[in-house]
Amino acid sequence: MVAISPAAEGIRTVDGVPLKIKLRRAERMRKIKAAALVAPLFLFVVVTFIVPIVLMLTNSVRNTEVAEVLPRTASAISDWDGEGLPDETVVRAFVADIRDARDNQIIGKAAKRLNYDIAGFRSLLIGTARDAPSPEAGNLLDALVTIDARWGERDYWGAIKKASVPYTAFYLLAAVDRTIDAQGKIEPVAEDQAIYLDAMERTFWISFVVTLLCLILGYPVAYLLGTLPTRTSNLLMILVLLPFWTSLLVRTTAWVVLLQREGVINDLGIMLGLWTEPLALVHNRLGVYFAMTHILLPFMVLPIFSVMKGISPTHMRAAASLGANPLRAFLKVYLPQTLPGIGAGVLLVFILALGYYITPAFVGGPRDQMLSYFIAFHTNTLVNWGMASALSALLLAIVVVFFVVYNRLVGIDKMKLG
Asked: How is 162-231 classified by DSSP, letter by letter?
């Protein structure tokens, strides 16, 4: 806001407009121009970033399939307490709904959703719809049990009750290996179905190891580039950036070729006498570490290098002149000044590693797949958008928590790259 002095209150411009009004108009136009310049970028961020995240979070709790296909059942079963079997009112509404859904050929939508709760529910519901009795017939529950004995089990009716509400925590709980029983209690899933917590732990561990390896390998490279003359360091920087000129898929496939039993690395190791038999270097955790470290290494080198470039060499000479040996001068003077670059590189590499999919899928084995693999599996194979969105929300939450913790411990304001 432009401050107007009392002396300027009565001053007028050449066109007779009071200076105070003229200054306010100029300030208003400046704000409008600034907003107009920012608006395209803001709109781009909203459309490509904010809206997809909101849709993803909505899909992770959205649960309208059963209520849309079986509306009378969803209304009637809401009063059922989950004990025993539902009463005749619920069963009659269910029979009427599945007959209508069968005639409108939309029964598969509800069947697919219920199959997420209990495997085999899809065939049960479609088969029952095909042979459904008339809603006016007597003792409909016995008639359903005659069609399939599973209708005499409480769990199947409980699954319909759970899936009848418009919003549910079913997908989010499933993402952490939990489920809701017919009484609404949260309990662990069966041991053979508990896979996501293991995948989350595996994702954390692989990301941590890859970040550590990138730091160990990247710091000396950045130090070399930062201490060399500018002309030489610029030439060597081309080698660091060279992987960016090749697609991620090609680089990952190249590691499969290099690490296979008949690959270059095994042949070289046998030729040099380092080992006598081909080693299993691919389709396991070791191959994942090799490939991901190679791919993510530039993201560690660049932030550290940009900070090192701004450190004056006189600092180390001053420490030496005061009696510090090279190691002590490095640890006490040089290394602390590079911490912002280390922090930026660690944050960038760790977050990128959390979401990696192609490299573990190609180079790793079945027990080396990270959380992103299951997101792609639910999206492309099972077409289960709710579960894919829940796992994505979980991964997003992990990144946000890590970012907040990092900000508390280190501080984002300290990550100034040069």
From this structure: HTTSSB-SHHHHHTTTEEE-TTS-EEEPPGGG--HHHHHHHHHHHHHHHHHHHHHHHHHHHHHHHHS-HH
